[in-house]
Design goal:
Layout lengths: L1 E5 L9 E4 L9 E11 L1 H8 L12 E2 L3 E9 L11 E5 L11 E5 L3 E3 L6 H5 L2 H14 L7 E4 L5 H12 L3 E6 L4 H7 L3 E4 L12 E6 L3 H7 L3 E9 L6 H6 L4 H20 L3 E4 L6 H13 L6 E6 L3 H10 L5 E5 L2
Parallel strand pairs: 9-10, 9-12, 10-11, 12-13, 13-14, 15-16
Antiparallel strand pairs: 1-2, 1-4, 3-5, 3-7, 3-16, 5-6, 6-8
Helix pairs in contact: 3-4
Length: 333
């Protein structure tokens, strides 16, 4: 099968187009012919080597966490899917490989594609949708009438999280550039701060929740917009000791994560706030609930640009530039 292969870590490295054997299917897995795969900031960071501590992939390997496609083979223990089903998924850690013609997916991580989306739109959903779901619904338990500050409203996670938070009945604030203010408001944001003109700290106060997707400096500033008892959930770090224990990291790695998050945790505790790090997990059942929201029209996928498979490296570069409004997708056929 054709694939784009990561031969070595590095910011200046490009993926190599090459041929690989089809994945070996395990009993509980489904082989999917990939029709579309989205590109995430996570893919860029993994190529750069920024996640080697958490996810030590051994090169050569294939990147790509989000896919949509058609089932072409099922393992003997698979019961929920059959040949020809249109499906989508956030691939499991250590079983990624969406930048290829075929990929093996655990049955428990797979869901049927929303009927009202194209393959490209469906591929844009899983990682950002599950991130927003696990942050707002599972971890924060966001309630109607509460308020949430979602950073970077025009980004992949931001565009989805704004819509989900509004569906849950929350008041939503976000940041974006001047050119995107009206566009982000159309997604449902109640308060939009143009970060080129205004410091969000000066206008946002007494929020229940912050969803942080930026650097640690911005995270620390974001604590100032929370009310006492509020919580900050970060999807960009620093990882905390609870996360390290959850993934059963070695003791040394746990201590590194404890140190990395020490400054943020101290600030949060001083102000009677909660802090936690979220590294989202694949979940077919949660994706199934997201499918219902997509099909009902409560949330719409936001795709900025679609690249042909041959331009996978260009798609990665576009994501890395930070210019994308919503998601960037690779079309396989």
């Amino acid at each position: 099968m054709k694939a784009f292969i990561t031969d070595r870590y590095g910011k200046k490295e490009t993926l190599r187009a090459g041929d690989l054997p089809e994945p070996v299917l395990r009993d509980n897995e489904v082989l999917v012919e990939v029709h579309a795969a989205s590109v995430n900031v996570l893919d860029v960071k993994m190529r750069n080597g920024e996640f080697k501590l958490l996810l030590p992939y051994r090169a050569p390997f294939v990147l790509g966490h989000d896919i949509a496609g058609v089932v072409v083979r099922v393992g003997p223990k698979v019961r929920q899917f059959k040949l020809g089903d249109a499906v989508y998924a956030r691939l499991d850690d250590f079983r990624i490989g969406g930048f290829a013609e075929f990929v093996a997916v655990q049955e428990s991580s797979l869901a049927r594609k929303p009927q009202n989306t194209s393959m490209e739109e469906a591929a844009s959903i899983p990682l950002v949708g599950l991130t927003a779901w696990q942050a707002l619904v599972e971890k924060a338990k966001l309630q109607k009438g509460q308020s949430v500050f979602i950073q970077a409203g025009s980004g992949g996670v931001g565009t989805f999280a704004i819509q989900l938070a509004k569906h849950l009945g929350a008041k939503v604030a976000t940041t974006t550039s001047t050119a995107n203010v009206a566009w982000v408001k159309d997604l449902g944001a109640d308060v939009v701060v143009d970060y080129k003109q205004t410091d969000f700290e000066s206008v946002l106060k007494d929020y229940d929740l912050v969803l942080n997707s930026q650097d640690t400096t911005t995270l620390k500033k974001s604590l100032n917009v929370l009310k006492s008892g509020g919580q900050a959930i970060s999807i960009s770090g620093p990882p905390d000791i609870a996360f390290a224990k959850e993934i059963k990291a070695p003791w040394v790695v746990q201590q590194v994560m404890r140190l990395l998050s020490a400054g943020v945790r101290r600030l949060a505790e001083k102000r009677h706030l909660g802090y936690s790090f979220l590294f989202m997990k694949a979940s077919g059942s949660q994706l199934g609930q997201i499918t219902q929201l997509i099909e009902s029209g409560a949330i719409r996928p936001v795709v900025d640009k679609v690249f042909p498979f041959a331009q996978t490296n260009e798609a990665l570069a576009y994501v890395e530039s930070g210019r994308a409004k919503g998601k960037v997708v690779i079309k396989m056929k």
